[in-house]
Amino acid sequence: MKIDLPRPDGTLAAYTLGEPRTYPPPENSITSRVAYAAAHVVADPLGEPDVLDWDATLAFRRHLWSYGLGVAEAMDTAQRGMGLDWATTRELITRSGAEARACGGRMVCGAGTDQLPPGPAPLGRVIAAYEEQLDVIEAAGAVPVLMASRQLAASATGPDDYAEVYGRLLVQVARPAVLHWLGPMFDPALTGYWGSADLDAAAENVLAIIARHAAKVDGIKVSLLDAEREVALRRRLPAGARLYTGDDFDYPELIRGDAFGYSDALLGIFDPIAPAAAAALRALDTGDLPRYQEIFAPTVPLARHLFAAPTYYYKTGVVFLAWLTAHQEHFRMVGGLETARPVPHLVRLFELADEAGLLPDPDLAAARMRAWLAVQGVTA
């Protein structure tokens, strides 16, 4: 299968698609690591900007569960703070919770404060906003992820304010929660989270919170795109607390681990590479490290391109790949975010997905790519 693709100089060049790699759903559960895919949402192309196609959105979650992965629901991959409002998020959590119970799927859900207006807010209002969302998550039967809050980042005067907010929340959660450290490359509004722009000081602050409430902390998701810093933090966690890597650049080595431990996973990249990720983790289950490396290796260039700066627009590439792989029938996004990445970026993403063997139907992917390029004004 060949397709003419635009080059940086404005010319078109023939590109020949390769053979897809086949990764059937595993027969057994993944056992060596806890792994969640942060799932995207599918917009209703005929609805208002924040209306979802519920059938396609929930079908994609069933796809992730079928591969033995957990679903990280209502996280930043689902466009929290980038088009998805709290009313729709609440319905998403409730509907996904019902689907998870029906199929026995694992699910964590993001609890945030995005029902508040932007900007500073009294700490009491921040806590109350978190509590409202925690009630919805616990009713859905999910493990809560206490998402980094823009309102808290705008309001806190130092580490003590973070300690107060998280302390108030952790003492009341029904089951141990996951904390959430999202770096400013994912959301510039979170610069200085945990009370300091110095990442070493911030790490000390969050470690103190975890130590103080260890019985109520399942772990912490770290998305700083800094493997060395993640490993250093992982080695200092109290016994029983997990480090869920959110490093979409270095996930193979962080999940593999070293003599001192390993990271579990809560990753946006696991959304588009779910079949490969599940196969790699099953290889890890059996101790087949060469197979683990062989499967993950071609996904890393794809991930590094997908999450390239400005990193917070990675959701556009995730949905583009979902369309190319027939998980949805259109390339439209909540809030019109499908326009956030330029044509050359998505053309290269197409090539990298093909090189990784992640386009299961090359003919369909090429046909959709041609149609999209024609709409962009790129014609042979």
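Next protein, fold it too.
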Amino acid sequence: MLDARRLYMLKTVAARGSITAAAQSLALSAGAVSQQLTALRHDVGVDLLRPDGRTVALTEAGRVLLEHADRILAAMEEAECAVAAVRGTVGAGTTLAALPSTVARIVAPALTALSADHPQLAVTCLVTDQAQLRELTLGTVDVVLGQRYHHLPETAPKGVAVSPLLDDPLLVVTAADRSDGRPVALRELATHHLVVPPATTDCGQAILHACQQAGFTPATRYVTADIAAQLALAQAGLATALVPRTAITPATPGIRTAPIEDHPILRLLFAATRHTEAADPTTTAVTAALRTAAQQDRSTRIPPS
């Protein structure tokens, strides 16, 4: 009989590209993973992996087995969720992955509410700029607070359920004495020195796309994805920043924010979970807390400084 743990290791190696990378993500030694994959190879009687340069790749038999492994592992999770739904109680632990720009105004209030409502639930929070939907499909995280800019097509990996939370506009941020806070036509920024994220990031691409739609290429003076650095440069009067609303702490001194009136740049914040027919009470509770925090944040106005 096939061992589900070995099937999961095969899936992880296929996703990570090497036994070493898979072992690191599983907090195991490479030798332990190799032993389990050797045992799986003996179980099925055929090679499942082959060398591919510095990585490994699935053989044809490995690809076939992985297709079945995906269904087997998904069925096991369905069974666990169905039992949890019957039990109707929130579990003892879960893992949330979130963007740094969402921590102060959405994640922290949500975790505070969860702690009060479900004190038995320990939430491990992974804060990272890297997209975590693949980690969701691998089972290393249970809920992802992610983003998608509106000029990009809607895409989600197979087996992932996405729940929209909030349309989060980018605001024009300047030093407090450089603006009166009125709405800004994006074209007005053609003469500004901008601080923007790298063009390789989703936000950087969204800003470049919107500026081009407005008829100009932005004059980029500073490039950084660090929002604290963007705000510091704006506060000092050295640059104008375009920053998501939820990434700006209302009490930040020395800055003034203004909406974009003609070519708004919006990111959709969403909660993503693995799709199951029966709702998992734990991930449902986390998603609900994130949604409540996002709705409350929507009504929070950033005062001029």
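About the second fold: The CA atoms of residues 49 and 161 lie 30 Å apart.
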